[in-house]
Amino acid sequence: MHHLLGRQLKKNFGDKPPASPEFAVFSQVVSNTYDDYDKDHNLLEHSFDISSKEFQELNNKVLKVVEEVKFEKQSVEQKVVERTAELKAANERLVELDKVKTEFISVAAHELRTPLTAIKWITQLLHKDVTSFTSEHAEQINKLNEIINKMVSLVGDILNVSRIEEGRFGSTLKQQDILPLLQSILGIIEVNAQAKNIKLIKNLPPTLPTLPVDEERFKLALENIIGNAVKYTSANGQVAVTAVATADKLTISVADTGIGIAPADQKRLFDKFFRANNALKHDTEGTGLGLYIARNIIEAHHGTITFNSAVNQGTTFIITLPLTERAK
């Protein structure tokens, strides 16, 4: 008999509990119930002890992982800070080197321009009197004149790029009659087009509005763009120059039937010194500076320049300029 049941019976009945069979069965049932309760209680306490121990172990493991992650995070953050400082120092060094390079190129180009100008003047004098030379000498003078002109043009491009990078490539905008300006540019380029048997189509209206432009810079930009169209179009092809004015803008498009520009090259077309692979194969001569300079000139006029192109089908450049000078 369970000790708690025995204590309760003694308290109620003394030393003489009821002796009936029914009471004996009842007492046994109650005693067994008490025994089962004790067993469950002991089992529960043991289970709780085990669970508490496992929980503590798990908690310790979690805390350890948290500390490890925290340490790793601090280590990574320190490395990021150190790497950022290294990259910043390297970038500053590159900027300084680029500045030195630009200054050197600018000085070198200035130093080259003076003797080249003198040589060009002499070759032009010789070219004017070419009839007094033998045919062989005359041909050499013509080649020399072409070479000098290319060198002078190259030096000019390098100087313009240096001015752009140094922020000295300013433009003085004045109201200009655009139609005669376009006609003058096309007249010069038409000579090269005819020499290559390329048809130059001029879609110009009878009149065009005046436009605030820097005449020298604007002519340089258009000569680069239209000149490239002729340069990269094969014989029997054509280049069409179209000008259209609306109430607030002037749009000039230059469409050719030339070699086109591959999609992979199009995103770099206005980069310095960049020339597409098919352009290099078509014409090995060139600096890759013309479109870079042209875009900067157009943007200095508050305009935009875009293009669309397909390989072996041609390219169309579209220049859009406002008809009134915007506030700077």
Write the SSE topology.
Elements: H1 3-13, H2 21-128, H3 135-165, E1 174-177, H4 178-195, E2 199-203, E3 210-213, H5 215-231, E4 238-245, E5 249-256, H6 263-266, H7 277-282, H8 290-300, E6 304-310, E7 314-322
Parallel strand pairs: 2-4
Antiparallel strand pairs: 1-3, 4-5, 5-7, 6-7
Helix pairs in contact: 2-3, 3-8, 4-5, 5-8
Structure description:
- The chain is of the alpha+beta class and 328 residues long.
- The chain folds into two domains: 1-169, Helix Hairpins, CATH 1.10.287.130; 174-322, Histidine kinase-like ATPase, C-terminal domain (Heat Shock Protein 90, 2-Layer Sandwich), CATH 3.30.565.10.
- It contains eight helices and seven strands; from the N terminus they run αααβαββαββαααββ.
- A five-stranded mixed β-sheet has the order 2-4-5-7-6, with helices on one face. A two-stranded antiparallel sheet has the order 1-3.
- Strand 4 and strand 5 form a beta hairpin.
- The protein is rod-shaped, with a radius of gyration of 45 Å.
What does this entry show, briefly?
The protein has helices spanning 3-13, 21-128, 135-165, 178-195, 215-231, 263-266, 277-282, 290-300, and strands spanning 174-177, 199-203, 210-213, 238-245, 249-256, 304-310, 314-322. The chain is α+β, with helices and mostly antiparallel strands.
